[in-house]
Amino acid sequence: MSVVLDVFSIVAIVAGLVFFLAGTVGLLRFPDAYTRLHALTKADNLGVALVVTGLLPQMDGVLAALKLVLVWLLVMLSSGAVSQLIARSVRRRECSE
Amino acid sequence: MTAIVSLVVALLLLWLALWTVVARDAFVAVAGFVVYGLLLSLVWVRLAGIDVALTEAAIGGGLTGALLLGAVGRLRGTEAAAWSERSGACTRAFAVLLSVSVATVLALCVLTLPEPPPTLAPQAAENLAATGVGNPITGVLLAFRALDTLLEAVVLVIALIGVWSLAPDRFWGGRPGPRYGADPDGILTYLARVLPPIGIVVGLYLFWAGADHPGGKFQSATILAAMWMLVQMAGLSDAPRIDSRWLRAGIVVGPLVFVAVGVLGAWQAGAFLGYPDGWAKPMIVVIELALLPTLVLVLALLLNGAPARSADSPPAPGETSLSARSTRPMPAGGTRQ
Q: CB–CB of B198 and A74 under 8 A?
């Protein structure tokens, strides 16, 4: 059983890291702020989600697992809000130019 | 394997530090500084200094970063002039000499430390039970070296007085900073309504957990102050008037209670800040409870800056300095496309 869980963890975390890698490449390669934000939010949402999912079976206790889920939800909330704010300020600067 | 990870992180940290110093654009330098703080807190986690990691992430990366961003906003007007300036060869040579010699002295000090380095950790761990707290950091901060913590709190209050004293006379007793205004249906206002309840719970949890686990009043106060700043920046509440009585009482309550407990110790336990037998834990809790409002208020008001308008000035949306990039409302029609 524990082998299955370990394999699940490894697969999920590696998949999450792939999203992080893709997001970073996008951040470096994409032409403008909006597409770069798009790449970044993929890494934030899917990447963190997969890493957290992979770590869940490794936690000792339900409480620790719940804390991890809470961290994930907070990361989603803040990264979503911050990327909206950044996009908005870029848009405003384009409008004023 | 772990050695390689440590080495990579250490090299990354050095590179980031260099990048932060070399960056010409102030905003870029501050961004580098914040990332540096977060990476440094990871290093503290690896060194098993969870308390230090929390403080570094909250105060080093977060709060100092926000303070520096405020400074960048204020300096933007003069930045072009600063760029065109080039200091003379003599000044540059002196700066190089000074930093190289400081680095050399620091390196020599670290390299000539005796092996094993002198430590009081065993004594602190041995006597921790007498304080009644389970987290050795809290034990050191509030029992063995309580005087340092008292002076820290006093220094913070003095720093705030220093910031306030920059206020022009006509605004004395007014409110610090600009009145923020944000789109009432915007994402910032949404965040400022959703996040504070969670942040307050997390902050108070960190405060309470600090007795037995990593955490404590400083980290907790930073989170609570950040929540307050978020509410202010979304325009949901205004910065306080600095002549309000409750505000000033809240600012001085921490140091005053701390000194009172210290005097009580001088009378009951024979030493300033000594705790009578069996009373250490309640005394520590009293001090922490009194320090929390002081720290929250001082940290938030340091971010707010000097009073810059009279107490009953109307809201002036568009006049933002702390986060000019994010809180200004959209110009009319800017949202639609």
A: yes
Q: What does the alpha-carbon distance between residue B294 and residue B220 come to, in Å, rounded to a whole number?
A: 12
| Domain range enclosing B3 | 1-75
Q: Per residue in B64-94, pLDDT tens? A: 998 998 888 888 888 777 777 777 889 999 9
Half-sphere exposure in the Cβ direction for B83 (13 Å, CA): 10
Could you give the ipTM of this predicted complex? 0.84
Contact A40, A27 (CB under 8 A): yes
A65 token code pair? 């697992």
CB contact under 8 A, B331 and A85: no
Q: How many domains are there within chain B? A: 2
- A56 is in which domain, residue-wise? 2-96
Same domain, B218 and B318: yes
Decide if B210 is inside a domain: yes
Whether residue B91 is contained in a domain is answered as: no
Interface list for A 62-91 with B (CB within 8 A): 74, 77-78, 80-81, 84-86, 88-89, 91
Span B240-279, pLDDT tens digits: 888 888 999 999 999 999 999 888 888 887 788 888 877 8
Alpha-carbon distance B326 to nearest alpha carbon in chain A (angstroms): 6
* Cβ-based contacts of B191 with chain A (< 8 Å): 77-78, 81
User: Measuring CA to CA, which residue among A80, A84, A93, A86 is closest to residue B334?
Assistant: A93
- State the maximum Cα–Cα separation within chain B, in Å, rounded to a whole number: 74
Residue partners of B334: CB distance under 8 A and separation at least 6: A91, A92, A95
